[in-house]
Amino acid sequence: xxWDPDERVxxxxxAVLRAAVPxxxxxSFGDGRRRSDLTLALLRGERLSVLTLAPRLLEQVxxxxxxxxxxxxxxxxxxxxxxxxxLEQQPLRSPERRAKLRQLSEVPVSDDExxxxxxxxxxx
Length: 124
Description:
Blueprint (H helix, E strand, L loop, with lengths): L4 H16 L5 E5 L6 E9 L1 H14 L3 E10 L2 E9 L10 H11 L6 H8 L5
Antiparallel strand pairs: 1-2, 2-4, 3-4
Helix pairs in contact: 1-2
């Protein structure tokens, strides 16, 4: 099923708004700069509301999320995030996909069981 890119942008923005408005978080949208970006979202509001909204968005938004910046301005907290195409939907040879895969491969192994599973195929 092929989706119109504009439709994906609208769906991602709508999902952010559905989660943010009930939480009392203001949202502004902007255009992404990379080919894989659907949209940029700037969340503004009380610090705890903004920070607890971000993990919920991972479940509700049909996109991957990358944090661009966060800042505290007086009584308001801001979190800017880029909503991107899911990794598996990005073109195989795109620079954004390569960078994301490289970043994921550099994540340290968190536990012994995972390290053992990863080393199972290593002849060393």
